[in-house]
Prior knowledge:
- This protein is α/β, with parallel strands linked by helices.
- It has one domain: NAD(P)-binding Rossmann-like Domain (Rossmann fold, 3-Layer(aba) Sandwich), CATH 3.40.50.
- The chain has nine helices and nine strands.
- It has helices spanning 19-30, 42-54, 69-83, 106-134, 154-174, 215-227, 237-248, 250-259, 261-267; strands at 10-13, 34-39, 59-63, 88-91, 137-143, 180-186, 196-198, 204-206, 232-234.
- The strands form two sheets. The chain has a seven-stranded parallel beta sheet with strand order 3-2-1-4-5-6-9, with helices on both faces.
- β2, α2 and β3 (59-63) form a beta-alpha-beta unit.
- The radius of gyration is 18 Å and the shape is globular.
- NADP nicotinamide-adenine-dinucleotide phosphate (NAP) binds at residues 14-21, 38-41, 44, 65-67, 92-96, 115, 119, 141, 143, 186, 188-189, 191-192, 195, 270.
Amino acid sequence: MNSGELAGTVALITGSSRGIGRQTALLFAERGATVVLNGRNEAKLAETAELLRSRGYSATSVTADVTNADQCRAMITRVIAQHGRLDILVNNAGISMRGAFAQLDPGVIESVSRTNLLGAALPARFAVEAIIEARGSIVFVSSLAGVRGFAGVSIYSAAKMALTGLAEALHAELAPSGVHVGVVFVAFTENDPDKTVMGVDGAPVRVSRKASTTQRQVAEEILRTIVRRRRKSYMTAAGKYLVFMQRHFPRITDAVILRSRGRIHGTFLL
Ligand SMILES: NC(=O)c1ccc[n+]([C@@H]2O[C@H](COP(=O)([O-])OP(=O)(O)OC[C@H]3O[C@@H](n4cnc5c(N)ncnc54)[C@H](OP(=O)(O)O)[C@@H]3O)[C@@H](O)[C@H]2O)c1
């Protein structure tokens, strides 16, 4: 139980009541970490904590909204009080949207920005002192939409791109203290069957599209990013190709994306 790459560490994974966060929690526990779960829905968190316990791992959880500074401060205080340290923070909580920018309700712009950007910056801000002490890791879960803006996911793309800026700045500030800061750019991933994103009016919309990775593969990439102390990890061959093309052939990339706009608009529901 306490062997594995993460033995002896305490890891807080935001948004781990379901989806990618839950798989990451499970994998980290398998690799020896003491895992702290987070989300807003207490019942869902309890269900996930029970899942970990049923597999023989201990798990605690903190109910907190990552967009609320007071709740983030209290969450980190509680982790330190319970476990005495914090080595790893995975900023995974996020929400996506779909729809043309011209039709977006301003509330969607605000929610998607708050959750994906503030919801990562605030936990990091309150955790940073403990992570410096542990010479640990802060990882941001981004998206291929954080590499390149796509039609239909404007604000999501913008918020995920902002995470790259935050991670680069944190690396510049914290690398001398031995802290690792990484970003994982995730591709289309299998979703929990009840997953929703925000429609143009803010109403939840079901997501159904073909996935190119499993949640477990994303969790494994997050683990590798931490263990190898990587700065940036791009998932899938298509993701790596996108990065290459954008860096070396930006005009061709623009043309291809413009041509496939309709298709992307319909399917790019990260
Ligand atoms: N699925 C994909 O294809 C894909 C692709 C690229 C990137 N990503 C990124 O991967 C991450 C996880 O995605 P997912 O598909 O696993 O999403 P998901 O199934 O919708 O799970 C999101 C998790 O975040 C929590 N959460 C949302 N808002 C929160 C808040 N304000 N405070 C605390 N917790 C909050 C949710 O719990 P509560 O609702 O109970 O709070 C839930 O545990 C996100 O950052 C997403 O942008 C996903």
